[in-house]
Amino acid sequence: MKERLGAKHFILGFQHLFAMFGATVLVPALTHMNPAIALLTAGLGTLIFHFTTKRKVPVFLGSSFAFIAALLIVIDGKASNIPKAQGAIMVAGLVYLMLSVLVYFAGADRIRKLFPPVVTGPIIMVIGLTLSPSAIGNAKTCWPLALVALVVIITVMCFTKGFFKLVPVLIGIASGYLVAVVSDFTGLTAALHMGVAGHFINFGIVQNAPWVISLHSFQTPQFDLTSIILIAPVAFVTFMEHIGDITTNGAVVGQDFFADPGLHRTLLGDGIACIVAGFLGGPPSTTYGENTGVLAVTKMYDPRVLRIAACYAIILGVFGKFGAVLQTLPSALLGGVSLILFGMIASIGMRTISEARLDFSHSRNLIIVGVILVLGLGLGNVPFKWIFDMFGAGNTEIAKTLSVSGLFMATLIGVILNAILPQDEKKPIEKHVA
Question: Which of 375, 14, 328 has its CA nearest to residue 184?
């Protein structure tokens, strides 16, 4: 029986809110969409996802980075083009719905066979490690401030008990923010040439933000074929990433979400959330590894906490002043927090491999794990332009923008290798003794 909601759950919701905030508002900032609407649709999308998945999967849906290149081309810095992007995002959501139907008829057992621990373990590691450049990039803007957050989080995790052990990320952010405020107030930031223009925190963002989002911020979607061709196919790429994220989330929580509530339901929830985001003018949604990292750190897996965070996101989206306060969080502070969160995700991948007791004296396991790690970490974004060049269409807009992530390629190749390499190996790799 679940414990009753209390103050603890609402505080934990804030912790998840901080984890998702930076990435969720960054995508609309890069693509000239509205960050407030992005927060609103992230919150609504998360609630839709939870009710579609029987309120069992502790996931938060935020803005997807996979669509950025296509959105930049369609929007082209012009607000008048945003409705075309909205319509294409809705079609991308419909692609998810079609994939959900296919997965439903394929069955959870068939999907699970494609993703045994020898595949899922390194995929989870790739998810965590490919996020690490983002953490380092933010942290290096001011390593001292990043280290304050990092040290505080580690201290709370290792040396405290009870409620404090549940909110290490929140305490780390609060401590770092307090240090940043004191440093700015005393002039230390400027004296040491840290921050931006001599300060860590820009309160002008709060002053310029509206109190309540205007109805004029919403536009009616337009269904433009060229925009749809550019944006909608990206859903096939994020489909693989979705599988990786749900696998990771299940590994953290210790439940098989492929079976209950079912991968088809998680895809359905993601698809409907994407359609709603497109309709309202937000970026496409995706499951967030940042929040899965928080689950791993706190070991508090109650989905209600994620729904509370979703409600906070909706409030921040509607009331602009509140959302702007979180935008004042220094990048270095977020980087210090991310070092822990993303590292925890990678560690979960290692745990998955360890608990499966894979025998690495067999070359089959070494090949699958090794190829997934190298492709996932080394490829980055793989352009498909060379394929279009073969058919003389290399100069089209879709040829210039369409690409797949290293995670997608690693997952695809890992699944193929697991399917074709023989299961029983008679001759293990020879062990050389020095």
Answer: 328
**Neighbour-count burial for 94-115, b at 16+ CB within 10 Å, e otherwise:** bbbbebbeebeeeebeebeebb
Radius of gyration of the chain from its Cα atoms, rounded to whole angstroms: 22
CB 264 within 8 A of CB 104: yes
Residue 83 has which token pair?
A: 């409705």
Element (H, E) at 31: helix 7-31
As a whole number, the mean pLDDT across the chain is: 88
Identify whether the C-beta of residue 372 lies closer than 8 Å to the C-beta of residue 410. Answer: yes
Predicted model pTM: 0.83
pLDDT at residue 376 greater than cutoff 50: yes
Phi, psi of 282 (to 5 degrees): -95, 165
**Structure confidence at residue 434 (pLDDT):** 45
Read off the pLDDT of residues 319-371 as tens digits, 9 standing for 90 and up: 988 888 888 889 899 899 999 988 988 898 898 899 888 989 889 999 999 99
Q: Which of 59, 289, 298 minimizes the C-alpha distance to 169? A: 298
**395 to 74, 125, 301, 342, 390: CA distances (angstroms):** 16, 36, 48, 37, 11
Tokens 């240090």 label which residue?
Answer: 179
Alpha-carbon distance of 244 to 312, in angstroms, equals 26
Q: Which pair of tokens denotes residue 326?
A: 């979180």
**Which tens digit of pLDDT belongs to each residue from 217-227?**
899 999 999 89
Cα 100 to Cα 40, 342, 393: the distances in Å are 25, 28, 31
- H/E segment holding residue 112: helix 108-114
